[in-house]
C-alpha cells in the first residue's frame, strides 16, 4: 500500500515538473519574440530623431540654439572638444555608435529641461536606459575635463585676487569667498530609509559652495546626507576639514587699514554656519536692538554674501533640472550637480548670457529643488568673536564705511540672515 501511494505521488510530481518546463519554454519564446536589438522606432534616429532634425535646423539661429542648450554654439563646440575623447565609442560591425555631439546634446537637454529619461528617449529616438547611461557618462566627462580649468585648486595668489574682487565690488576687505549650502531634492532613494530625509520632510543631498565676487564657484562639496545636522554638514565636509587644518594655501593675516592690526582672510556666511576666525556670520536678532554698529556689520556682510545666493539662483534658472526633485539615485545626483557647477563657471564668463538667464528665471515654475540649510546655534570661540568685532569697528570707521550704509539700515532691511 505504501509503495503504491509513493508511485502515484512521484508520477504527479513528474507531471508538474514537465508542465513547469513547458510553460517556461513558452514564456521564453514569447519574450524572445518581443525583444529587439534596436527598437524599430529607434532605427529611424538618424532620419527623424530630434538631434538630426530640430537641432540641425536651429544650428544657424543663435537665439534658438541658446534657448535650447542654454549655451552658444561656440560654447557647445568648446565643451565638446574638451570631453570628446571620454565619451567616444568604438564603431563595430554590429552597430554604429551614437555620435559624441549627440551624446553631449542629450545631456545638456536633460539639464536644461529636467525632462525624464523616457521623454528624452522618445524625442531623440534612443533606448530609455541608453539615455540614462549617456547622461551619466557625459556628466563624468564634464567634471573630469572642465573642473581643472574652471574650478582649479586655489593658490595663495588666487585667494588674493578673489579678496581684491570682494573689496572692489562689495566693499568687504580680506574676504575670500561667500559660503552657503543647499539641499538638492531627490526622489526617495532605494533602501535608504531616513538617511537622506531632511528637516523639510524631503529626501535630499547637500551642496556646499564657496563663491567669488563674480558668482563663480571656487569650491563645491556635494553628497552629504540630507538628514545630517546642518552644522555637522560643514564640519564633516572635505572643504570644512581642509579649512580647519589650513591646507588651502590661504594667505597670512593682512591689515585691512594702515592703522589696524593684521586680520585673517575670512569667508562670509549666514547663521547656518559656525562663527570662526576665518568664517564670519551675522549678529543674531537679539543683538541688533538699538545697536547700529551691529546692524551695519550685518548689512555689509549681507552685501558680500549675496554673491552665493545669486550663484545658486543663476544655476537654478539656467539648469531647470533643479526646479524639482532629481529623478535619479544619490550617486548619479552627485554627478549631475558637479557637472552643472562646472558648466556654470564655464558659462558665467559671458555677461550677456548671464543676464538673459536671470531674465528667464521669471518664466520658470514655482517648484524649487534647492532648499536652504537649517540655522545652527553654537557657542563661538573668544578669538572668533574678537575678529568679528574688529571687522565691525572697521565698517563704522571713516576709513571703512560706505556712504549709503546708514540709509540702508534705517530702511528696515533684514540684516540677520
UniProtKB/TrEMBL annotation:
Entry superkingdom: Eukaryota
Domain DDE Tnp4 residues, every copy: 179-345
Swiss-Prot/TrEMBL cofactor(s): a divalent metal cation
Keyword presence, Heme: no
GO MF, one example: metal ion binding
Gene Ontology terms: cellular component: nucleus
Subcellular location(s) per record: Nucleus
InterPro entries: HARBI1-like, HARBI1_dom
Principal subcellular localisation of the protein: nucleus
Keywords: Hydrolase, Metal-binding, Nuclease, Nucleus
Family: Belongs to the HARBI1 family.
PANTHER family: NUCLEASE HARBI1-LIKE PROTEIN, PTHR22930
Annotated protein name in UniProt: DDE Tnp4 domain-containing protein
Organism lineage string: Eukaryota, Metazoa, Ecdysozoa, Arthropoda, Hexapoda
Amino acid at each position: 500500500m505504501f509503495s503504491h501511494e509513493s508511485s502515484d505521488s512521484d508520477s504527479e510530481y513528474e507531471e508538474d515538473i514537465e508542465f513547469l518546463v513547458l510553460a517556461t519554454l513558452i514564456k521564453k519564446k514569447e519574450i524572445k519574440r518581443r525583444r529587439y536589438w534596436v527598437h524599430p522606432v529607434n532605427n529611424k534616429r538618424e532620419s527623424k530623431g530630434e538631434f538630426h532634425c530640430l537641432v540641425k535646423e536651429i544650428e544657424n539661429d543663435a537665439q534658438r540654439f541658446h534657448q535650447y542648450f542654454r549655451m552658444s554654439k561656440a560654447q557647445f563646440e568648446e565643451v565638446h572638444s574638451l570631453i570628446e575623447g571620454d565619451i567616444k565609442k568604438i564603431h563595430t560591425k554590429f552597430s554604429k555608435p551614437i555620435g559624441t555631439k549627440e551624446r553631449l546634446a542629450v545631456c545638456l537637454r536633460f539639464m536644461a529641461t529636467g525632462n525624464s529619461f523616457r521623454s528624452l528617449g522618445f524625442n531623440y529616438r534612443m533606448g530609455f536606459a541608453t539615455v540614462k547611461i549617456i547622461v551619466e557618462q557625459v556628466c563624468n566627462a564634464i567634471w573630469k575635463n572642465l573642473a581643472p580649468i574652471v574650478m582649479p585648486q586655489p593658490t595663495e595668489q588666487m585667494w588674493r585676487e578673489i579678496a581684491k574682487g570682494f573689496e572692489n565690488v562689495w566693499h568687504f576687505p580680506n574676504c575670500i569667498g561667500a559660503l552657503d549650502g543647499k539641499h538638492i531634492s531627490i526622489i526617495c532613494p532605494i533602501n535608504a530609509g531616513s538617511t537622506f530625509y531632511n528637516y523639510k520632510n524631503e529626501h535630499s543631498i547637500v551642496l556646499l559652495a564657496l563663491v567669488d565676487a563674480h558668482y563663480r564657484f571656487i569650491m563645491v562639496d556635494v553628497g552629504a546626507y540630507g538628514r545630517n545636522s546642518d552644522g555637522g554638514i560643514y564640519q564633516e565636509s572635505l572643504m570644512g576639514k581642509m579649512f580647519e587644518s589650513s591646507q588651502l594655501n590661504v594667505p597670512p593675516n593682512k591689515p585691512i587699514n594702515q592703522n589696524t592690526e593684521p586680520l585673517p582672510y575670512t569667508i562670509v556666511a549666514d547663521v547656518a554656519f559656525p562663527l570662526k576666525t576665518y568664517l564670519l556670520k551675522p549678529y543674531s536678532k537679539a543683538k541688533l536692538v538699538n545697536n547700529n554698529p551691529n546692524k551695519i556689520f550685518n548689512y555689509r556682510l549681507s552685501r558680500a554674501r549675496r554673491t552665493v545666493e545669486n550663484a545658486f539662483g543663476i544655476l537654478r534658472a539656467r539648469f531647470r533640472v533643479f526646479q524639482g526633485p532629481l529623478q535619479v539615485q544619490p550617486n548619479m545626483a552627485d554627478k549631475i550637480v558637479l557637472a552643472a557647477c562646472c558648466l556654470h563657471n564655464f558659462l558665467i564668463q559671458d555677461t550677456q548670457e548671464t543676464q538673459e538667464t536671470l531674465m528667464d528665471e521669471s518664466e520658470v515654475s514655482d517648484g524649487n529643488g534647492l532648499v536652504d540649510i537649517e540655522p545652527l546655534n553654537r557657542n563661538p570661540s573668544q578669538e572668533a568673536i574678537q575678529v568679528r568685532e574688529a571687522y565691525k569697528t572697521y565698517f563704522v570707521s571713516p576709513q571703512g564705511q560706505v556712504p549709503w550704509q546708514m540709509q540702508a539700515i534705517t530702511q528696515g532691511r533684514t540684516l540677520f540672515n
